[in-house]
Every structure is written in structure tokens, then in C-alpha cells.
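User: Could you walk me through two proteins back to back? I'd like the raw sequence and the C-alpha cells for each, with a short line separating them so I can tell where one ends and the next begins.

Assistant: Of course. Protein one, sequence then structure:
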Amino acid sequence: MTISRNTLSFLSHQALNLRINSLRMTTQSGSGHPTSCLSAADMIAALFFNTLRYDYKNPAYANNDRFILSKGHAIPVVYAALHQLGVISEQDMLNFRSIDSVLEGHPTPRFAYNEAATGSLGQGLSIGLGMAINARSQKLSYRTYVMMGDGEMAEGSVWEAAELAAHEKISNLVAIADCNTLGQSGASLHPAHAERFAKKFEAFGWHTIIIDGHDLEQILSALEQAHTITDKPTVIIAKTFKGYGLTAIENKAGYHGKPFTHEELPEQIEALKQRFSDAAQYTSTEKFVPSAPDALTHTQPSTTPTLNIANDAHAALFARDKKISTRKAFGYALETLGNNTAVYALDADVKNSTYTEFFGKKYPERFVECFIAEQNMVGVATGLALRGKVPFASTFACFFTRAYDQIRMAAIGRGALRLCGSHSGVSIGQDGPSQMGLEDIAMMRAIPESVVLWPSDGVSTYKLVEHMAQYNDGISYMKSTRADTPMLYDASETFPLGGCKVLRSSAHDVAAIVTAGITVHEALAAYQTLKQQNINVAVIDLYSIKPLDRATLLKVGTAANKTIITVEDHYAQGGLGEAVVSELRNTGITIHSRAVSKMPRSGEPEALMKFEGIDAASIVALVQSATK
């Protein structure tokens, strides 16, 4: 491509200002990563002042190009670009990292122009892939650009994303690797060997371009070339120097995360002006006008996803005399929810166990098979959620543990993920402890603004899936079980978030059994046995673990001899029992908790539940002991 000298001069001038303002911001805050900004400045200048098609008055516009800074510690250089574009005032820019500023030390969507929360390295490419998949399926023309550092490319999640992007032939995704060779404590995995990164991406099926990341002509040519590729994603491998522009620290270790002092700053700014003297002297009377995004040719879906079990094609399966596993009920509900084109389903090679295959067969254009790569699955779901979609991601509950960092970061980024973990608890049986989700309630309860659900039958599962689809303030998680269980509720029953169901109670209860999921059925069996012994107990289905119905628990527990017994197919730490104890502390109610306390093993589900003391007979014995 032919690039005018005036364009190069203009971009050089912008890159110099990016460097200067990055230094000013980090010095003013007394913290930050100026050297990482300096290596990226030329590429950021090319993107923001030449390539991106973006309406800066409307950052939420559906067809804006998207830019994700996966190397989130370099965010000052992006804030500097937005300042130079007139989006951020001088005062706001210099308030960087202050408690009253939305310009945080790593990107979060508290600032509307940040696409996602990044900074936990290795996650940006997955999120960008989700955004690119959204553009393709919704027939939008925007491109997604993701800038990574070479250090974070040691993370396996990067290569999970790279493989799926190539498999899906996502040509509207452009990755930019800032290979400045130096990490926080030393050299990166392949210092000064950009070719190795290129060979890796080529092996995964990407179009690769190696450039000098400080040569604007090469940067612009690479970006233009990326736009011509139609059958695969493109990665631009940019050879750069950390601290580029300041000879005293350029390409030298030991300067990561070290801003200059106020006394040092004037000298460093002058050094940059001397190094880039032509850029410093550049003047122009022309005002830069960003490229406009393409106009939308169709309306994006905006209706709220809803379900009506009475009118569902599968309504007969939820009749009172039927049995169905909660995982299968989830699959049927999700399939019906797919009538709304904002709903997507993602799975990790277990769709015939989680039953997301129902959705996939009916809506293949909105089903993403992520294969056995749960970190990437959650990242892709995050990208879809941040573009306004309603993604449900499913796998075995135990396998969400390996994607916990992605879940944590999605919460920081206000991503409304819907997660369903199947095969939870020892009740799955013979597959053994490696397949049993026994930590998931603890994990998900700890996430800010999360909703944690544990239904006990098909009807409650179906109704709670609708609540998940409509919850947009954070992450919602459903724990489902493998075994078929009888229906406990009529189709007309409602299940508000933060509620519970009192299934059995009397005026003479000596204890209240509080449980959820499959152990609700064990508690009901225990109730029958105890009743025959003239021992009355209440039974509560605590389907909503978070938020939790404190008022009902307090009322029923107080009436039941001020004694509550919690039972759960989950480890004690962080589970249902601890949630109840936390809510009812200092109320005078005595709480006895029974959970999975021994290392599980393979075996029949019934034998395993007895082994852990969470079957009906064990509940009976616990009630007898606790109420003597």
C-alpha cells in the first residue's frame, strides 16, 4: 500500500504524544507501567488515528470496531489516545488510578470505552473471539482487534482461543502481539524470537505477519493486509523494545511497573522530544476525523428472553408424575429459550451430557462448540455477553474450576454470564471424584453480584433458567445433577430469586432440614421415616443459595425448636451449610451441618451418599441425635 508522508508524520506525532502522556499519567499516579506503554505506542497510534472505524460519541454502537487491550497494564497508552481524540479531559487523564476515577490501573468497563476487564493476562483473545463470533452470526461488519504481550502468550488460554478461532475461520479477528521480549521479572518465553510465535500461530491455522512494531509503514501495511484475509484470523507479530524512545532504559530489565518521579519527568519528556524531533516539530491545521463505522442494516434483538412451561413443546415431560434429571430439564429449557436470537449456548465437548445438544441441533448458528477448553469457553461467553448477548456456557461442574480466573474477571467486567455445571456431587456415582463437582457452590458464592441456584426437580430447573436469562447484573450459576428425580412441583409454581420452598412443616417440628438439589429427595424420604416414629420435622428446598431467603429460614427454624440441620452433596467449606450459618449467626438457632466430608470414590450413587452421610438414613440418624 502507498502511505503518504503526511500520514506518517501525523501518526509519528501522535505516537510521541502517547508516550509523553503515558509518562505523565503514571508519574502523577505514582504507579503504573510506562515502559509497556512505550513499546505499544506506535501500534496504538496506527489503530486509533488511522484504522479503527468508531463513533467516539457512542461507544456502545453495535457496529463500532472493537479493541481489547489484553496486556491490560499498558492501559495508560490507550487513555492517552482517547485524550488526544477529545474523549478524556486533561484533568481526568491525570486523575488516572485515583479512587474517584473510572480510569483504573487495568481496564474495567466502569469506563465505557474499555471493552472488557483485562489485566489477568492471557484472556483478551478469548473475549475478542466471542465478540468476533457475535459479529459473524449477527451479520455485522465490525472487526475486533486484540493486543497481547509476548509474556502472556505463555498462557494456555491464548492457544485455546487461537485454535478455536482458526477452526471457526474467524477472519474478522486481528491479534497484535507486542513482542518486547521483557516480562516483569525477566525475559519472556521466546525473547527476540518473533518467528517462533509466528510458527505457533501458523500451526494453529492463522495468517501471520511479522513486522517491526516501531515502523509505522510496516504497521499500516500489516493492518491493511489483515483486512484482505477472508478465511482465517490474522496475527501481527510486532518486534518491539520495552521502553522504546528512552535510550537509558530501552530494552533493559528492571523497569517494569516503575514510573518516573516528578523530578525525573521533565528530563524524560525532553529526551523523547529529542529522540523523535521531527514528530515533536510536526504541526497541522487539519483536525483529525476518525473513520466512521458502517451503518447498521438491521435491528439487533432487544426483547427479554422468556419461558412459559405451559406452552412449551416439552410440557408433557414436566408433568407431576414424571421423572427427569435437572441437567436434562436445563437442556429443554435452553432449547426453548433459543427462540430469542440474543441467546447463545456454549459447551466443552459434553453437550450430550449437559444436553445443550438440544439447542445446538435447533440453533447451530448460535451454538459454539468450544471443545475441551473451558477457559476459552468462558472467555468467548464473556465476549458475547459484553456485546449484549445472553450466553449460557455449560460443562461438568468440576471443570469450571479450571476457568475460575476467567469467571472472576468476567464478574469484574460486569459480564452477565450464565453458567450451568452438571454432574455435581458424589451422587453421579461410578465415574469417581475427578468428575464430581464438589467445590462449585463455594467458588460461585465468592463472586461479587453472583446468583447461585441448585434446583431439585425439572419444574424448578425450567423456571430458574428463565431467571438466569433475565439476570443482567452479574454471573448466574446453576448446579445440576445427573440422576433422574421425581417432579416435586406443579408447573404453575414460581421460584423467585432469593426464595425457598417449605415442603413440609407442622406446629410440632423438632428441627428443620434445609437442603437443595438431589438431597431434597433424601430429606423427604427421611421425613417419612421420622413421621412414622412420631418425630415431626420441616423440610426446606433452598433452591436459591445466593441470594438466600433469610427471613423464611429464620421463621421456620425458630418454630422448629430453634434447630436447623443442613444437608448437601458438596464439600462443607463454602457450601450451603456455611451460607445458612452465615445468614443465621447470632439468632439463637442451633445449626448442624452435614456435607461431603470424606474423599469420594467410585461406587453406586446410593452407596456413596451413605458413605458421606447424606442419604435418608443418615439424615434420620442426625435428626435423632440432634434432638435428643
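----
Protein two, same layout:
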Amino acid sequence: MLPKRKRIALTVLALMLLSVQAVFPVTSMEAAGANRVMVVHSTESGEIDQNVRLLDIVLGHFADDLEFRGAADLQAEDLKNVTHLVYYGATADQLPLAAKEAILSFDGPFLAIGENADQLRERLSTITHHGMVNIDRVTRKKGEAEAIVEYPFYIHHVTAAGEETGTVWTGWNGDQAHPLFIQHGRDAYYAANSLFGTSAYLLGQGLWTFFGKEPAGEHLAYVRLEDVHPFSDPELVRQSGQYLADKGIPFMIAVIPVYTHPETGKWHHLHENPALVRVLRDLQKAGGSIVLHGYTHQYRSTETGEGFEFWDVENNHPIAGAPDEDIQIKDRHDFATDGEYEQYVSSTRQYEEEYTRKRIEAGIHELFQLGLHPLAFEPPHYTMSQQGYEITADYFNLFLGQVQLTDENWQVMNSAPYPSKPAMLHGMTLLPETLGFYDVNLPDPLVPFRESIKTMLAIDDGVMGFFYHPYLGLEGLNRMIEEIEQVPGLKWIDLRQMSPLVQTDAVAVNSNEQGSLIVESSWSDRLSIFWETRGLFGFVQVLMWSIATVVAIMIALFLLYTIQMRLTLRKRLFKERNANG
């Protein structure tokens, strides 16, 4: 007989195969027309870096399979089964002869980005390079006056000729127009070196033309109620969720199961606030989707909701030790041999894996016990190492927010303009946050919100994702919803309609075609979960539960003894009555 986890997984897989859905173009590609994309890159290190990972999350909307190769390692045979070829020159370099010949001989669609494209004139014959130019705004078409982006950045100054050449984006320096994304037949060129900020969104729009895909013509949106934890006010959470439910808007609730007091370090669990649990259950029934937003949303002595959890922000490094340790991050020069250094790196990675798995599983299990079923994951402050993403993919297939692009600096993050399934997320689908949140520290929190909506309106099928803190009351949420409801063709994302899959060794959560949740577990697993999570409460609470259990058993035994004595006494009296006639 198959183990419980395999049986659950097979059941869920069968249900997923039966419920073929076409929520987004990226999820409805026919297998026969799969896009197998090769990204060839020239980076300073020669390895995949933050720039290439950002390209990964943009391409992940269109690519069924993504592969990466440094220009120095590319050979013609590497392109044998590739349908689309992308070359990204993140830094100026001389292309190796083998790489150049492979690119020039490739017979499928080709996209060049940034530097070194002038070395591929035979392939991009309609484009002439003239150095660099500073632009201060970008419009969708050359004739449009309204700017989509209004800030200065450098691009390659190029001119394009030919009847088949079209410009998706145009950059402007004063009244001088400069093509930014150029499409000529099957080939294309994007003239910016950097993809950070809105540049990734501009590239993303051009990819519709490059891949020859037709957008659905809708603007996707989601709203997330953020940082709901055991100390959250149940009534304020209820008001925000019910407001959205009454408007027929599917919504998400980012839940933190444990609140850690910053001074005492005491853990307060969600079950200790039964009123909040009831509210969350009611909102889940009303169409709200629970999102696991970390386990404690903190590391070391920081407060829940403010601190990080899956990143050591003090050392700006992946988690390498226990929160109560004084962790000193070491480099190669701290060790006598390569072997000692590699052993150190291996041990820190092993600790991070155990730490991450324990917290994710504990979060899923504690919510599950309370009848709350998380359908997606959002790391606190969007920070997580590359290994962290790989681990998370073992438990979730839906991921929210932005993506940290390097293990060197948590602040280097960005997002795609639309749903994406990048290679770096190991099978998880990213639902990006693109509009920010209601920042009460601003004179008018809606000013950046409106500007972001304006940018996203220029991106076909882009996601307008944002979040709101329920403790602010309804006024700000109402203002945001009124603003975004003016967007034409708005379509709200419902996680239940995206075939979510969440699983551990003990539980599995999925949904059917109608969006109803399918939850599986076993009684034995529930018992193990009960004791596993109670073990996190601390010695005192375990002791109190133990005493209460012993007292309950003693009371039960006393009652049984009393009943038995009464029955015995009745029998004795009955016998004596019969004996005396």
C-alpha cells in the first residue's frame, strides 16, 4: 500500500488533471507548442546573477522551459531543441566566436538585450548603433504624447530601418525619439542594459510581440489583507474582509500564526485569540483565501510584522544560525583550506534548510488545525534566499509578492508585470505585487498608487497587485478599491481558481473546478501535528496541559469509582432485603 503522502499527492494530481483551467495565458499553452527558451548571458562573473534572474521572472510568463548558458560556454548543439533564443549583454564584452556562430545560425526567433548586440549585425541587420543616449520618458508608440515612464535612464542609441520593423516602445530625449523595443520579423532588440524598476515591465510588454502571443485584453488584480497575526483586532479584520466580500471581490488574507513579543520573547499563537480565528474562518467561507505569511514574521528579537524571518538582515545573509546566536559570517579567507570552507558553507545551508522547513511546516499545520487552509506563500518583506525558494516549492505552487534576486543583498528585488513561472521559483507561479500599499506616512497615499496603475495599464494582461493593513480601518481600503475599480476590463484573481496545491507529509489542500477546497489528512497525522505544534508553545504550557490531562483522568476515575460503589451498595441492599423476607 502506498504511503499516506504519496496517496494524497496522487489524488490531488488526478484532480488537477481533471480540472483543466485557462486562467492566464501562461497556464494554457498547448504542450505541442511549448516554448523552450535559451538565455545566453554576458555578465561580469560569467554566472547567473541578479540581472539574469530578473530576466528569468519576465520570461517566465511565456516560457514552458527556461535554460541558461554563459556566452563563454555556448555551443551550437546547445540550441538543438530550443524554440526561442535570448541574448542578454549585461556588461560589454567580446562575444566568443563559438557563441557568435551559434546565435547567427539559430533559425528561430531571436531577442538581443543591452550590450554587444552590435557584434551580431548579420542577425540584426536593420539596426544601427550610435552609442548611448539619456532618455527621460517612454511612450507606447512614437506618436503618443502621454508618457508611461517619466524618469531618466540610459539606453543604446539605435536607428532601425526596413518595412517589417516596428517599435513597441519609444524613448524620448526632449523632442528626439529613440526606439527602445524594436521588432523586425521574428527578431527583436531591447535597447536598455538594466532591467530593474519599470524597465522589466517595458521589456515584458515587448515579449508579447516577440513570442507572437495574443493577450486576453484584461487587467488582472488582487488585494491582500496584510500582517494578520494573533494580536490583530478581530473586528477590524472582519470589517475589511466583509467589505470586500460584500462587493464580490475575491481577496487574500496574509496570516502570521505566531506573534512574538519583542521584549519578553514569548510566543502567542493564533488559537489564543478565538474571536480572530472565528473571523478568519468566516472570511474563508465568504471567499477569502488564506496566505501563509511566514510563521513568526521575525528573527532574533524583532517584533512580528516588523522583523524578517527567512533572512538575517543584520548580516545581510541567508539564515546561518539560531536566532539567539551571535552569528559571525565567514569568508574563504577565514579558512586554511577550500575543504574547510566548503564544509562551513554546507553546514550553514543545512541549517537554513532545516530552519525553513520547520517554520513553513509549523505554519501550515497550525493554520490547518484551526480550519484555515493556506493556498499560497508570501515571505516576510519578500526576502528569501535562492535555496529558500527551492525549499518553499516543496510545499506551495503559488507565490505572492516580489522576488529577491541575489543572496548578496536582500534589497535587490523586483517583480514581473504579469503572472510568471520562472525557473528560479522551481515550479511555483508568481503573482506579482505591482501597486504597493496604502502608506499613511504620505500626504496622499493614492498618488503613487495612481501612478503605478497608469504604468500597469500599458502592460497587456498585467497584474495590479496590492495590499492593505486592516488595522487602518476601512477608509483607506475603500479609497483604493474605488480607484482601481475605474480600470476597464478589470478581473479579480481568485486563488481557488488557480489550482492551488499545498502539501506536507501530513496534509494536502487543493481546489476543484468550482473553486471549492479539497482538504486531506489522516487522524494519526492530526495527532502528531497536535503534539508537534504544542511542543513549540514552551515547557510551561506543555506542563499545564499535562496537569490538566492528569486531573481530568483522575476526575473520570473518581466518577467511575463512585458509580461502581453505588451499584455495589444497591446490590447488597437488594440481597439483604430478599434475605429478610
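Confidence is low (pLDDT under 50) at residues 1-31, 523-543.

Let me know if you want the two compared in more detail.
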